[in-house]
Pseudouridine synthase (Marinobacter halophilus), 338 residues
Amino acid sequence: MAGDNRTAGPVGKRVDPPPGQVQKGVQLVAVDEDMAGQRVDNFILARLRGVPRSVVYRIVRKGEVRVNKGRVKPDTRLQAGDVVRIPPIVQQSKPERVAPGDRVQSVMEAAVVFEDDDMLVVNKPSGIAVHGGSGLSFGLIEVLRSSRPQAKFLELVHRLDRDTSGLVMVAKKRSALRVLQDELRQKRIRKHYHALVAGTWPNSVGRVNEPLLRYEMPNGERRVKVSAEGKESLTLFRCLQQFLGYSLVEASPVTGRTHQIRVHSAWAGHPIAGDDKYMDEASLKAFRAIGGQRLMLHARALEFTLPKSGEAMKLEAPYDEAFAKVLDELEQRSKGTH
Protein backbone atom coordinates (compact mmCIF):
# COMPACT_ATOMS: atom_id res chain seq x y z
CA MET A 1 0.00 0.00 0.00
CA ALA A 2 1.60 3.28 -1.11
CA GLY A 3 2.46 5.61 1.74
CA ASP A 4 1.79 2.93 4.39
CA ASN A 5 4.17 3.37 7.32
CA ARG A 6 3.61 -0.14 8.71
CA THR A 7 5.96 -3.11 8.42
CA ALA A 8 5.24 -6.79 7.81
CA GLY A 9 5.12 -8.94 10.97
CA PRO A 10 6.60 -12.44 11.30
CA VAL A 11 3.37 -14.24 10.22
CA GLY A 12 2.49 -12.00 7.32
CA LYS A 13 0.35 -9.58 9.31
CA ARG A 14 1.08 -5.89 9.04
CA VAL A 15 2.13 -4.18 12.27
CA ASP A 16 2.83 -0.59 13.14
CA PRO A 17 6.49 0.53 13.51
CA PRO A 18 7.56 1.35 17.09
CA PRO A 19 6.11 4.59 18.53
CA GLY A 20 8.06 7.66 17.45
CA GLN A 21 9.37 5.92 14.33
CA VAL A 22 8.32 6.01 10.69
CA GLN A 23 9.32 3.83 7.75
CA LYS A 24 9.89 5.27 4.30
CA GLY A 25 9.62 3.14 1.16
CA VAL A 26 12.31 2.80 -1.48
CA GLN A 27 13.51 6.20 -2.70
CA LEU A 28 15.03 6.78 -6.15
CA VAL A 29 16.76 10.15 -6.13
CA ALA A 30 18.19 11.75 -9.27
CA VAL A 31 21.39 13.70 -8.62
CA ASP A 32 21.32 17.21 -10.09
CA GLU A 33 24.24 19.59 -10.70
CA ASP A 34 23.89 21.09 -7.25
CA MET A 35 24.11 17.70 -5.51
CA ALA A 36 27.07 16.50 -7.60
CA GLY A 37 30.38 15.92 -5.83
CA GLN A 38 28.90 14.67 -2.55
CA ARG A 39 29.97 11.37 -1.01
CA VAL A 40 27.28 8.69 -1.03
CA ASP A 41 27.22 8.40 2.79
CA ASN A 42 26.71 12.14 3.29
CA PHE A 43 24.07 12.22 0.54
CA ILE A 44 22.07 9.51 2.32
CA LEU A 45 22.53 10.98 5.80
CA ALA A 46 21.05 14.28 4.55
CA ARG A 47 17.92 12.42 3.40
CA LEU A 48 17.57 10.09 6.36
CA ARG A 49 17.64 12.53 9.25
CA GLY A 50 18.01 10.79 12.60
CA VAL A 51 19.41 7.54 11.17
CA PRO A 52 22.79 6.71 12.78
CA ARG A 53 25.85 6.82 10.53
CA SER A 54 26.55 3.16 11.42
CA VAL A 55 23.21 2.15 9.88
CA VAL A 56 24.02 4.08 6.70
CA TYR A 57 27.40 2.33 6.40
CA ARG A 58 25.73 -1.04 6.93
CA ILE A 59 23.13 -0.61 4.18
CA VAL A 60 25.83 0.64 1.79
CA ARG A 61 28.10 -2.32 2.63
CA LYS A 62 25.25 -4.83 2.14
CA GLY A 63 24.54 -3.39 -1.31
CA GLU A 64 21.09 -2.04 -0.42
CA VAL A 65 22.19 1.39 -1.60
CA ARG A 66 22.72 1.45 -5.36
CA VAL A 67 23.92 4.11 -7.77
CA ASN A 68 22.75 3.54 -11.34
CA LYS A 69 21.75 0.02 -10.17
CA GLY A 70 25.34 -0.80 -9.12
CA ARG A 71 26.93 -1.31 -5.69
CA VAL A 72 29.07 1.53 -4.32
CA LYS A 73 31.33 2.40 -1.40
CA PRO A 74 30.48 5.06 1.22
CA ASP A 75 33.12 7.45 -0.15
CA THR A 76 31.96 7.17 -3.78
CA ARG A 77 31.46 10.66 -5.23
CA LEU A 78 28.15 11.26 -6.98
CA GLN A 79 27.89 12.83 -10.41
CA ALA A 80 25.09 14.81 -12.03
CA GLY A 81 22.64 12.42 -13.67
CA ASP A 82 23.28 9.53 -11.24
CA VAL A 83 20.22 7.80 -9.78
CA VAL A 84 20.58 6.74 -6.15
CA ARG A 85 18.44 3.94 -4.68
CA ILE A 86 17.83 4.38 -0.95
CA PRO A 87 16.23 1.28 0.65
CA PRO A 88 13.25 1.32 3.05
CA ILE A 89 14.48 2.19 6.52
CA VAL A 90 12.89 3.02 9.86
CA GLN A 91 13.59 6.58 10.98
CA GLN A 92 12.91 8.43 14.20
CA SER A 93 9.95 10.66 13.48
CA LYS A 94 10.71 14.31 14.09
CA PRO A 95 9.07 15.82 17.16
CA GLU A 96 6.73 18.68 16.41
CA ARG A 97 8.64 21.93 16.68
CA VAL A 98 7.17 25.32 17.44
CA ALA A 99 6.94 27.11 14.10
CA PRO A 100 8.33 30.67 13.95
CA GLY A 101 5.50 33.19 14.01
CA ASP A 102 4.71 35.68 11.24
CA ARG A 103 6.27 38.55 13.19
CA VAL A 104 9.67 36.90 13.64
CA GLN A 105 9.59 35.78 10.00
CA SER A 106 8.94 39.34 8.82
CA VAL A 107 11.71 40.66 11.09
CA MET A 108 14.21 38.20 9.60
CA GLU A 109 13.14 38.90 6.01
CA ALA A 110 13.52 42.63 6.67
CA ALA A 111 17.05 41.92 7.96
CA VAL A 112 18.20 40.52 4.58
CA VAL A 113 20.78 43.02 3.28
CA PHE A 114 21.80 41.17 0.09
CA GLU A 115 20.38 38.38 -2.03
CA ASP A 116 20.98 36.77 -5.42
CA ASP A 117 20.31 33.31 -6.91
CA ASP A 118 23.14 31.68 -4.94
CA MET A 119 23.12 33.25 -1.49
CA LEU A 120 21.72 35.81 0.91
CA VAL A 121 23.26 37.82 3.73
CA VAL A 122 21.30 38.66 6.87
CA ASN A 123 21.94 41.28 9.56
CA LYS A 124 21.13 38.89 12.42
CA PRO A 125 19.58 40.47 15.52
CA SER A 126 21.29 39.96 18.88
CA GLY A 127 19.60 37.28 20.99
CA ILE A 128 18.64 35.03 18.09
CA ALA A 129 20.71 31.88 17.57
CA VAL A 130 21.77 30.97 14.03
CA HIS A 131 20.03 27.59 14.41
CA GLY A 132 17.71 25.82 16.85
CA GLY A 133 18.84 23.31 19.46
CA SER A 134 19.95 23.36 23.11
CA GLY A 135 16.43 24.17 24.21
CA LEU A 136 15.73 26.65 21.40
CA SER A 137 12.75 25.89 19.15
CA PHE A 138 14.23 27.71 16.19
CA GLY A 139 17.03 29.97 15.03
CA LEU A 140 17.81 32.17 12.05
CA ILE A 141 18.02 29.30 9.55
CA GLU A 142 14.73 27.73 10.67
CA VAL A 143 13.00 31.12 10.45
CA LEU A 144 14.26 31.64 6.90
CA ARG A 145 13.18 28.14 5.86
CA SER A 146 9.75 28.76 7.37
CA SER A 147 9.33 32.10 5.58
CA ARG A 148 10.56 30.59 2.28
CA PRO A 149 8.79 27.21 1.98
CA GLN A 150 9.54 27.11 -1.75
CA ALA A 151 13.32 27.19 -1.15
CA LYS A 152 14.85 23.76 -1.84
CA PHE A 153 18.12 24.53 -0.06
CA LEU A 154 19.08 26.99 2.67
CA GLU A 155 22.21 26.35 4.75
CA LEU A 156 24.42 28.49 6.98
CA VAL A 157 27.85 29.25 5.51
CA HIS A 158 29.26 30.20 8.93
CA ARG A 159 28.00 30.97 12.43
CA LEU A 160 27.66 33.83 14.88
CA ASP A 161 27.20 33.55 18.63
CA ARG A 162 23.60 33.97 19.74
CA ASP A 163 24.25 37.33 21.43
CA THR A 164 26.40 38.72 18.59
CA SER A 165 24.54 40.72 15.96
CA GLY A 166 25.48 41.33 12.35
CA LEU A 167 26.19 39.78 8.99
CA VAL A 168 25.65 36.06 8.37
CA MET A 169 25.93 34.36 4.97
CA VAL A 170 23.35 31.75 3.93
CA ALA A 171 23.76 29.59 0.81
CA LYS A 172 20.75 28.94 -1.43
CA LYS A 173 22.56 26.24 -3.42
CA ARG A 174 24.87 23.42 -2.38
CA SER A 175 27.38 24.52 -5.02
CA ALA A 176 27.46 28.03 -3.50
CA LEU A 177 27.90 26.55 0.00
CA ARG A 178 30.95 24.58 -1.17
CA VAL A 179 32.52 27.63 -2.83
CA LEU A 180 31.91 29.99 0.11
CA GLN A 181 33.11 27.52 2.75
CA ASP A 182 36.24 26.86 0.68
CA GLU A 183 36.79 30.65 0.48
CA LEU A 184 36.53 30.79 4.28
CA ARG A 185 39.07 27.97 4.66
CA GLN A 186 41.43 29.76 2.28
CA LYS A 187 40.93 32.96 4.35
CA ARG A 188 39.73 34.88 1.31
CA ILE A 189 36.57 36.15 3.03
CA ARG A 190 37.29 39.07 5.33
CA LYS A 191 35.07 39.67 8.36
CA HIS A 192 35.20 42.88 10.38
CA TYR A 193 33.48 43.23 13.75
CA HIS A 194 32.86 46.29 15.91
CA ALA A 195 33.22 45.71 19.64
CA LEU A 196 32.84 48.03 22.60
CA VAL A 197 35.50 46.98 25.11
CA ALA A 198 36.22 47.99 28.68
CA GLY A 199 39.08 50.46 29.26
CA THR A 200 41.38 52.31 26.86
CA TRP A 201 42.53 50.05 24.05
CA PRO A 202 46.25 50.74 23.43
CA ASN A 203 47.20 51.57 19.84
CA SER A 204 50.26 49.35 20.33
CA VAL A 205 48.03 46.24 20.38
CA GLY A 206 47.18 45.68 16.72
CA ARG A 207 47.08 41.90 16.82
CA VAL A 208 46.49 39.10 19.29
CA ASN A 209 48.00 35.78 18.23
CA GLU A 210 47.19 33.44 21.11
CA PRO A 211 46.13 29.77 20.78
CA LEU A 212 42.59 29.00 21.94
CA LEU A 213 41.31 25.86 23.65
CA ARG A 214 37.69 24.87 24.14
CA TYR A 215 36.78 23.32 27.50
CA GLU A 216 33.72 22.46 29.56
CA MET A 217 32.67 23.98 32.87
CA PRO A 218 31.48 21.69 35.71
CA ASN A 219 27.89 22.65 34.83
CA GLY A 220 28.39 21.53 31.21
CA GLU A 221 28.70 25.04 29.76
CA ARG A 222 31.31 25.32 27.01
CA ARG A 223 33.98 28.00 27.29
CA VAL A 224 37.22 28.96 25.55
CA LYS A 225 40.56 30.01 27.06
CA VAL A 226 44.04 30.97 25.90
CA SER A 227 46.20 27.84 26.21
CA ALA A 228 49.39 26.50 24.67
CA GLU A 229 47.41 23.31 24.02
CA GLY A 230 44.86 25.20 21.92
CA LYS A 231 44.53 25.90 18.20
CA GLU A 232 46.44 28.71 16.51
CA SER A 233 44.28 31.85 16.48
CA LEU A 234 44.84 35.38 15.18
CA THR A 235 42.72 38.52 15.54
CA LEU A 236 43.67 41.96 14.19
CA PHE A 237 42.51 44.97 16.22
CA ARG A 238 42.18 48.67 15.46
CA CYS A 239 40.88 51.32 17.86
CA LEU A 240 38.09 53.39 16.27
CA GLN A 241 36.98 55.68 19.11
CA GLN A 242 37.74 56.35 22.78
CA PHE A 243 35.10 57.02 25.44
CA LEU A 244 35.31 57.46 29.20
CA GLY A 245 36.07 53.94 30.43
CA TYR A 246 35.46 52.22 27.07
CA SER A 247 36.84 51.91 23.54
CA LEU A 248 35.15 51.07 20.25
CA VAL A 249 37.45 48.74 18.30
CA GLU A 250 37.38 46.99 14.96
CA ALA A 251 38.27 43.29 15.32
CA SER A 252 39.10 41.27 12.22
CA PRO A 253 39.49 37.53 12.90
CA VAL A 254 41.97 35.85 10.55
CA THR A 255 41.11 32.43 11.99
CA GLY A 256 37.56 31.43 12.92
CA ARG A 257 37.64 29.90 16.40
CA THR A 258 34.67 29.79 18.79
CA HIS A 259 34.45 32.99 20.91
CA GLN A 260 37.74 34.12 19.34
CA ILE A 261 37.23 37.90 19.52
CA ARG A 262 35.66 37.68 22.98
CA VAL A 263 38.54 35.67 24.46
CA HIS A 264 41.32 37.59 22.68
CA SER A 265 39.82 40.90 23.88
CA ALA A 266 39.60 39.65 27.46
CA TRP A 267 43.15 38.25 27.28
CA ALA A 268 44.39 41.70 26.19
CA GLY A 269 42.80 43.11 29.37
CA HIS A 270 39.81 44.68 27.61
CA PRO A 271 36.81 42.34 27.71
CA ILE A 272 33.83 43.12 25.51
CA ALA A 273 31.14 45.09 27.34
CA GLY A 274 28.14 42.97 28.31
CA ASP A 275 30.03 39.67 27.99
CA ASP A 276 28.68 37.54 30.84
CA LYS A 277 31.15 34.74 30.05
CA TYR A 278 34.47 36.60 29.91
CA MET A 279 33.90 39.93 31.70
CA ASP A 280 34.36 40.17 35.47
CA GLU A 281 31.29 40.71 37.64
CA ALA A 282 32.14 44.28 38.74
CA SER A 283 32.75 45.48 35.15
CA LEU A 284 29.56 43.78 33.97
CA LYS A 285 27.59 45.50 36.73
CA ALA A 286 29.08 48.89 35.81
CA PHE A 287 28.09 48.37 32.17
CA ARG A 288 24.53 47.44 33.16
CA ALA A 289 24.40 50.66 35.25
CA ILE A 290 24.78 52.82 32.10
CA GLY A 291 21.92 50.95 30.41
CA GLY A 292 23.90 48.24 28.64
CA GLN A 293 21.67 45.27 27.98
CA ARG A 294 23.48 43.22 25.31
CA LEU A 295 26.86 41.85 24.30
CA MET A 296 28.50 44.74 22.45
CA LEU A 297 29.82 42.72 19.52
CA HIS A 298 28.53 43.31 15.98
CA ALA A 299 29.59 41.67 12.71
CA ARG A 300 29.82 44.99 10.89
CA ALA A 301 31.28 44.20 7.45
CA LEU A 302 31.96 41.36 5.01
CA GLU A 303 34.29 41.34 2.03
CA PHE A 304 33.92 38.42 -0.39
CA THR A 305 33.44 37.50 -4.04
CA LEU A 306 30.15 36.19 -5.40
CA PRO A 307 30.31 32.42 -6.02
CA LYS A 308 29.14 32.50 -9.65
CA SER A 309 30.27 35.83 -11.13
CA GLY A 310 33.38 36.40 -9.00
CA GLU A 311 32.27 40.01 -8.46
CA ALA A 312 33.89 41.62 -5.40
CA MET A 313 31.39 42.56 -2.68
CA LYS A 314 31.64 44.62 0.50
CA LEU A 315 28.59 44.74 2.73
CA GLU A 316 28.03 46.73 5.91
CA ALA A 317 25.35 46.29 8.55
CA PRO A 318 24.10 49.14 10.76
CA TYR A 319 24.02 48.76 14.56
CA ASP A 320 20.74 47.86 16.19
CA GLU A 321 18.99 50.33 18.49
CA ALA A 322 20.44 48.86 21.73
CA PHE A 323 24.04 49.01 20.43
CA ALA A 324 23.66 52.54 19.03
CA LYS A 325 21.98 53.75 22.23
CA VAL A 326 24.97 52.69 24.39
CA LEU A 327 27.42 54.42 22.04
CA ASP A 328 25.31 57.58 22.12
CA GLU A 329 25.17 57.46 25.93
CA LEU A 330 28.97 57.14 26.12
CA GLU A 331 29.41 59.96 23.61
CA GLN A 332 27.29 62.24 25.77
CA ARG A 333 29.18 61.24 28.93
CA SER A 334 32.54 61.83 27.23
CA LYS A 335 31.42 65.33 26.29
CA GLY A 336 30.43 65.92 29.89
CA THR A 337 26.76 66.52 29.10
CA HIS A 338 25.64 63.77 31.57
